[in-house]
Specification:
There is one protein chain. The chain has helices at 2-7, 9-22, 51-79, 88-99, 105-109, 111-122, 129-148, 153-165, 181-192, 198-215, 224-237, 249-266, 274-284, 290-302, 311-347, 363-372, 396-399, 412-437, 445-464, 487-505, and strands at residues 167-169, 178-179. By secondary structure, the chain is mainly α. The protein has a two-stranded antiparallel sheet with strand order 1-2. Helix 9 (181-192) runs parallel beside helix 11 (224-237), helix 12 (249-266) packs parallel to helix 14 (290-302) and helix 14 packs parallel to helix 18 (412-437).
């Protein structure tokens, strides 16, 4: 399992790229670029070259690419112990670091591949001892300059992520990787520096999630760096971090989720249970996205020193969260049905299926076809208008259509989203309840009984997330004998029922928010 742990940062890099490209908009500014030396500099195409010019440029670029390839190969061989180490520093200084400051779209888009190739070539298991330490120190120094310079924000973020990825030794089936202590110190300093932009803090906290997952309770937050990290995480979750009121919503929520994960990885509930209380506050905050609260449930179960007196409340909070999560999934299922009904009415598209398998198209579409003369599934709009001959919401034909949820079923690809989400929430809750029950000194019989009853309900709910799944070998529906209506209705009703059962165990818990679920 340990090698898999050391590679999880690659998925973090992908997520960070999404955050960077999908939700963070940078102002148009002029950024510095470190020029590549001539021997490494290819010629960019403008699209205006003649055929002869194009051939010359392509020929030149092939030569340059071969120089890059050969020099890179020499570095790899040197680091593995079969070459001259004097080639390493010039290649990093003249090619790697300047290349990572380029603003060309193709370079920026390749940052994920660059990180992967960097680990494979320069920090493989063949690179050990002094050679590995030289790479880590050399790369960290150069990447810090990029992170702190006036470079493209994507380049600066990429530099921070790369710093967090470099371990002093690889893990194997019996040994954890050894993170670079200097990297931990640097990443924590970025979090504490009020002048550092949010996107760099996002990169830093994401790297620290991985590092703390490796370190775990072996350090327990006792070192100065990890204590500072724990303090910062608590401040973010309490909405008291400096400048947090200026953070964009997406970035703030990303930070909160990673801070919850960091605190769980450190496994320290605080000297008087204050960290555990902060995590409990996240679990019970219905205004937060459900996925942040789910991570808080998971983190709570990892804490090792929760005061016994705080365990009953912690258990009740987990039970209430699980009921809230199931309620939200139930609400979301019917909202999705309503959305698909609307699409079928407006566009004649078939999004829903007959739950009993009698027809190949939804009753809404059949009725709509009769009213509009349209063709089901084609997305056509006969007569140049919307189905029913009028505008949405005002068509006479639409007014005549009777829609009841039991007539429709969501397709599997849509239902699977709700199944997977519910499975995740239920898994975290069940595991955390088991961990809380096993804490030393816990002797509250009432809370113990509530936890055991909740665990039984959660187990039933988890089993029901498989309702209606199709056996790919036989083509038959699993639990088909229990399905007397659509799986959408079945999951909605069962999730709602289990949610009420869980809430009845902790009646003082707040009722689920009936607003649109924040998935």
């Amino acid at each position: 399992m340990f090698p898999l742990l050391s590679k999880r940062i690659l998925s973090v890099g992908t997520a960070l790229s999404f955050l960077l490209l999908g939700t963070v908009v940078f102002a148009q500014e002029t950024y510095d670029v470190v020029p590549l030396p001539e021997k490494y500099r290819t010629i960019a195409l403008t699209g205006l070259e003649s055929d002869e010019q194009l051939r010359d440029i392509e020929k030149n670029n092939r030569v340059i690419e071969n120089v890059r390839k050969n020099d890179r190969k020499a570095v790899v061989e040197a680091l593995a112990g079969s070459g001259n180490m004097s080639v390493v520093e010039p290649f990093f200084r003249e090619f790697l670091f300047p290349y990572l400051t380029q603003t060309d779209d193709d370079v920026v888009a390749s940052f994920g591949s660059i990180r992967k190739d960097f680990l494979k070539d320069f920090l493989s298991q063949r690179v050990t001892g002094a050679n590995r330490k030289q790479v880590v120190d050399l790369a960290t120094g150069g990447l810090k300059k990029i992170a702190e310079g006036n470079y493209n924000p994507a380049a600066r973020l990429n530099a921070v992520v790369m710093i967090s990825m470099m371990d002093l030794s690889d893990g194997d089936s019996a040994t954890l990787p050894q993170p670079n202590p200097d990297a931990t110190t640097y990443l924590v300093s970025l979090l504490e520096n009020n002048g550092v932009p949010l996107y760099l803090k996002v990169g830093a906290i994401s790297g620290l999630v991985r590092i703390t997952e490796i370190l775990g309770a072996s350090n327990g937050g006792n070192s100065a760096d990890l204590k500072a990290l724990s303090t910062f995480a608590v401040s973010v979750l309490s909405n008291q971090a400096t400048g947090q009121d200026q953070w964009e919503t997406d970035g703030s929520q990303w930070m909160m989720r990673r801070c919850v994960q960091v605190l769980g990885n450190l496994q320290n509930a605080g000297s008087n249970g204050d960290i555990a209380q902060t995590i409990n506050n996240v679990i019970t905050d219905s205004k937060l996205p459900i996925w942040i609260r789910a991570d808080a449930v998971d983190a709570l179960g990892k804490l090792t020193n929760i005061p016994a007196a705080a365990l009953p409340t912690s258990i009740d909070n987990v039970i209430a969260f699980t009921g809230d999560a199931l309620d939200r999934e139930a609400i979301a299922i019917y909202k999705k049905v309503e959305e698909y009904v609307g699409r079928s009415l407006l566009f004649d598209d078939v999004y829903l299926i007959d739950p009993l398998g009698k027809n190949t198209q939804s009753k809404a579409t059949q009725q709509n076809q009769g009213n509009s003369g349209g063709k089901a599934g084609g997305g056509k709009m006969p007569g140049g208008g919307m189905p029913g001959g009028g505008m949405p919401g005002g068509a006479a034909g639409q007014d005549e259509i009777k829609v009841t949820k039991s007539e429709f079923d969501l397709p599997n690809y849509s239902l699977n989203m709700f199944r997977r989400q519910a499975k995740g929430y239920l898994y975290y809750s069940h595991r955390t309840l088991g961990r809380l029950l096993s804490k030393p000194g816990f002797n509250d019989a009432g809370a113990q009984q509530r936890a055991k009853e909740a665990a039984g309900i959660i187990k039933l709910a988890a089993d029901d997330t498989n309702a209606g799944l199709v056996d790919l070998k036989t083509g038959k529906a699993i639990l088909a004998n229990e399905i007397t209506k659509g799986v959408s209705d079945l999951l909605h009703d069962r999730f709602s029922e289990y949610a009420q059962q869980l809430k009845s165990l902790v009646p003082r818990a707040a009722a689920a928010d009936e607003s649109a679920p924040n998935q």
